[in-house]
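Subject: sequence -> structure tokens, single chain

Hey, anyone have a minute? Need the predicted structure for the following. Not urgent.
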Amino acid sequence: MRDALAPLGPEYGEELARLLDPANGRLDIVPGINRKSGGFSKGFIGFDSVFYSVGFAGSYNDVRGLTHESTHAINRQLMNRNHVLPAYASGPNYLFESFAIFNELLLPDYLGSHETDPIRKQFYLEQFLDGKGMIMFVAAPEAALEQAIYDGVAQGGIKGADEIDALTKGIYSRFSIWPDKHDELKNEWMRLSLMYEDPFYYINYVYGGLLALKFYELYTRDPKQFIPRYIALMSNGFDAPPGALLKRFLDIDLNDPRFVSDTCRILEGKLQQLEAIYSPR
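Reply:
Had a minute. Here:
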């Protein structure tokens, strides 16, 4: 993980090393009974951030989760180092998620570039897409469904599970071929944990995923120019609206019509690589 994120520079690397050092007591990752599920980081300006997970067994997904959540922790540490006022330490969650998703993309990118075994190399390319590269296509129907449920209840059109089943199938069918083939997928609304635990959070993964791909495009095009500006953005805090911050630090215009199409080209390139592997000539 430290090698994969080394391109982010020494300041980021130092904070990551401190977080991962057992001597600092900032990781709670040993599995056991009665552990809270999932993984997350906690922190506040003036205090060292910490990371918790239900357990760490060393799988790729465990490392991916640690990469994601450690970014949230280090984001707070960078703001600490920059003496950001507590009032400016919180902002739109999609911007926090964009940092974590971008760093999550760097992990399979690094592992795939340093792998010689073709099967493992294919696995890391798949993980670039499955891990978070395609997250907006997963989160978009979830976000759309959640909004539609609230709207439907307010308008009196949803009174029970049957109406939510129909709504789920209708929305998910716009994003996938499977709901029309497998009627049981109309029950997907029952497993959307964030809809109950953290209402309206799914939309953050849509915008966060798009921004992360834009970061990846800028990073691959000119890492020497991108990295210092990216770390400066992470360190700055939220003393301006997110659109202004993205424009100031990375010259990203959220209202540019090319924003979505440019980021989708990253996915198209990765998919073409994968198709070539799946269907060799």
